[in-house]
Write a structure and sequence with these properties.
Roadblock/LC7 domain-containing protein; single chain; Beta-Lactamase; 5 strands; Mycobact_SerProt_Inhib_Rv3364c; about 140 residues; globular; alpha+beta; Roadblock/LAMTOR2_dom
């Protein structure tokens, strides 16, 4: 069964335009499929989404080593040469990823990402896919 996903691109555009030096904003499923994007071409968004799936998996593997952790990744921040990468859980099976220039206001981008997730989190949820015909 094909499910209709709402077009999230305009909401991602709002996030990108409200925080100077934001380059790419992507919503992806836990298995690395792009669900929405702003500020990037399709190929780049797809590559970033695929890489994010691996990153959230690694973060979850590390999280289980904490005594009271449920093993779920909430947010990953990576400082890169020339910028920052943010990956935030955005609902069951969905993630919000943002790539910025190095001069970005880290507090502002984090707050705007949390606001976006809180505002539209139910739209960002990606239900698990099942192989084979529907029963």
């Amino acid at each position: 069964m094909i499910q209709h996903r709402p077009n999230l691109d305009w909401m991602l555009k709002d996030l990108a335009e409200s925080v100077p030096q934001t380059r790419h904003v992507i919503v992806l499923s836990a298995d690395g499929l792009r669900m929405g994007a702003h500020g990037t071409d399709t190929d780049t968004a797809d590559r970033l989404a695929a890489a994010c799936a691996g990153l959230q998996s690694l973060a979850g593997a590390v999280a289980v080593e904490l005594p009271h952790s449920d093993g779920k990744m909430r947010m990953v921040v990576i400082e890169l040469d020339g910028g920052f990468f943010y990956l935030m859980a955005a609902g069951a099976g969905a993630y919000l990823a943002v790539l910025t220039d190095e001069g970005v206001d880290a507090g502002l981008i984090g707050a705007r990402m949390r606001d976006l997730v809180a505002r539209i989190g139910q739209h960002l949820t990606s239900p698990p896919r099942h192989d084979g015909p529907a029963a």
